[in-house]
Amino acid sequence: MSLDNTTAYLLLGGNLGNRVQNLKDAIAFLAQDAGEIIAQSAVYETAAWGKTDQPAFLNQAVAIETQLTALELLEKALNIEEKLGRIRLEKWGERLIDIDLILFGEEIINIESKLNIPHPYMQDRKFVMKPLAEIAPNVIHPILKKTIFELNCNILDDLNVIKIH
Predict the structure, then answer these.
(1) How many domains are contained in the chain?
(2) Containing domain of residue 20, as a range?
(3) pTM of the full predicted structure?
(4) 83 domain-assigned
(5) Residues labelled as active-site residues
(6) Cβ proximity of 43 and 99 under 8 Å
(7) What is the DSSP string of the chain?
(8) Bigger pLDDT: 1 or 93?
(9) Half-sphere exposure at residue 148, Cβ-oriented, CA atoms within 13 angstroms
(10) 83-137, pLDDT tens digit by residue?
(11) 98-104 and 109-111 beta bridge pairing
């Protein structure tokens, strides 16, 4: 563990089971296992992206202050997914819960097939950017050097992302 806190941004999502409760449970586990939740967006509903023949997703962005490294936080997130019943059957498939590490401070991390920070597709996906812009509009993307607000305003993704609560 590092001694300093880092603000990390995660996107939670799911399209199976009690979707709202799954998000709440994931946030509770993150607060218990990984650090202090300092912000959370509203919950948004979006049609499935990538593999579209499945139920709509709920997504929520959270900011966490953590003393964990990015890899340790990723490991905690994967463990929480497992605790909540996540089974990985196919890429972009249906899931009870998904916890993606989007940003980790100002770090740029590329560990082949394990962890890429910032998330390589975040700026292309409205279901990531809309909730993220709600809680981190002035955060600067460490590679693109634009704020989350700017990136969200210029996104080409045409999926309908609807705030539900």
Answers:
(1) 1
(2) 6-163
(3) 0.92
(4) yes
(5) 86, 95, 98, 100
(6) no
(7) --SS-EEEEEEEEE-SSSHHHHHHHHHHHHHHHT-EEEEEPPPEEE--SSS-SSPPEEEEEEEEEESS-HHHHHHHHHHHHHHTT----STT---S-EEEEEEETT--EEETTTEEES-TTGGG-HHHHHHHHHH-TTPBPTTT--BHHHHHHT------EEE--
(8) 93
(9) 23
(10) 987 665 555 557 789 999 999 999 999 998 889 999 999 999 999 999 999 999 9
(11) unpaired
Tens digits of per-residue pLDDT, 128-163?
Answer: 999 999 999 999 999 999 999 999 999 998 889 999
Domain annotation covers residue 1 = no
- Dihedral sign for Cα atoms in the order 54, 126, 18, 119: positive
**Do 148 and 133 touch, CB atoms closer than 8 A?**
yes
What token pair was written down for 20?
């709202």
Taken as a whole, the chain contains a residue count of: 165
| CATH for 104 | 3.30.70.560
Please give the single-letter amino acid code of residue 79.
Answer: N
Residue 53 — very low, low, confident or very high, per pLDDT cuts 50/70/90? confident
Place of tokens 């890899």: 71
Q: Residue type for 28, please?
A: A
